[in-house]
Amino acid sequence: MQLKKKKSIAAALATATTTLMTHAATADVNDAGWEIDTSILYYGEQDDRVKDTSFATRIARQFEDGRQLTFGLAVDSLTGATPNGAVALDIPQTFTRPSANGQYVTAPGDLPLDDSFKDSRTAGYLNWSQPFGDAWSYSAGLSFSTEYDYEHFGINSSISRDFNKKNTTLSAGFAYAQDEWDPEGGVPLPLSELRGVGDQSNKTSTNPEKTVVDILFGVTQVINDRMVAQINYSYSKSDDYLNDPFKFLTVLDNAGQPVAGPAGLFSYRFENRPQERTKHSLFMKLKTFIRGGALDTSYRYLTDDWGIDSHTFDMRYRFNLNAQNYIEPHVRYYIQSEADFYQANLSSTQPLPQEASADYRLAKFTGTTLGLKFGHKFANESEVSARVEWYQQDGKAKLEGVVGSSTDVFPDLDAVIFQLSYRFRL
């Protein structure tokens, strides 16, 4: 079934690409030509944690009648170590690797990190958009990505209509995605204990899937000749396998000490999340043209049935130094509450919950991004830019079921981001 699915995805992409490229080739020769954006991005976390080097390109052909063909491709290489969900202890901890072919050891006091984390990803999308009539426009596209243990395939479409002498635009969009896991060593049974080397009795060879449906409604309004506002509402529904097969929780007694598990290990149990997730979000953006540049400010509120509420504030100011050069400071602040089933550990003195996860991305935390971008425009309409940003994540999480515990076990995070981009026309 997996082989047939891969073939069907490849065939669909090939057919769509051939159709759209043929359509583009027969278009009016008096078009605006090709626009190509390329970028190299580096993301690095402190303490030899996750590092990502990514190359991305976007190729677009804009025709004079408003039609546009867009193709994007990104290739990522990830290395380093990532938190496995266990809490730091004052004694060494031994963990079995996901393949069950070996083990790794965490030193006393250190945050447990899976040092076998390596992955590569290839992702792409194809989109065709065009106007019809005097006020309508439509777009449709495909997206895909493939990783060592994960595959994604999606389709999307949108439609918009202009009103009020094109000062008001209403839009609606739809997207559907189907993803599939194929983790090394198999998929762990929910809340089962981590086993020893060579023991995969708690895992299944079935490749679980996840489906995601997204719906969006939006309005864009020109307020005056220097100000544009936008507001969007989006709905997202995810179903089926929503676990991370590599995350687990430490089992502690009421004194905060680890409990014995199988094969001489401490007791760690794999996470289990709900099989459904519904998200609602409201996004508002205001773009103001100020002498010497443009100010972009936005706010997004998200809530879901997992108990997470988040707020995102974002501000960018593009200041033109002269006709060729500009700088763009960037500030972003993010805050979220924790999921209903999030807990830093499991307690041996309490019944095993139906759902639990120690994934810090589901905890209560704040994230702050500070950045600066510099760009230079050439006479031939090409442009080069460089962006550097610093990201800090700070959260709160306490041990469960430990008498008198006030220890904050959230793994704080600092990361640096650097991106170099080049845009040109053919």
Keywords:
16-stranded antiparallel β-barrel, mainly beta, 25 strands, 1 helix, single chain, elongated, Porin, 56% strand, 426 residues, three-stranded mixed sheet
Write up what this structure looks like:
The strands form 5 sheets. The chain has a 16-stranded antiparallel barrel. It is elongated and about 70 Å long. Strand 1 (34-45) and strand 2 form a beta hairpin. The chain starts with a helix and ends with a strand. It is mainly beta. Residues 1-12 and 14-30 have low confidence and may be disordered. It has a single domain, classed as Porin (Beta Barrel). It contains 1 helix and 25 strands. It has one helix at 2-25, and strands spanning 34-45, 51-62, 68-79, 82-83, 93-96, 103-106, 113-114, 119-132, 136-147, 150-163, 168-181, 187-188, 203-204, 209-224, 227-240, 248-252, 268-270, 276-290, 293-304, 309-320, 325-336, 345-347, 364-377, 383-396, 413-425.
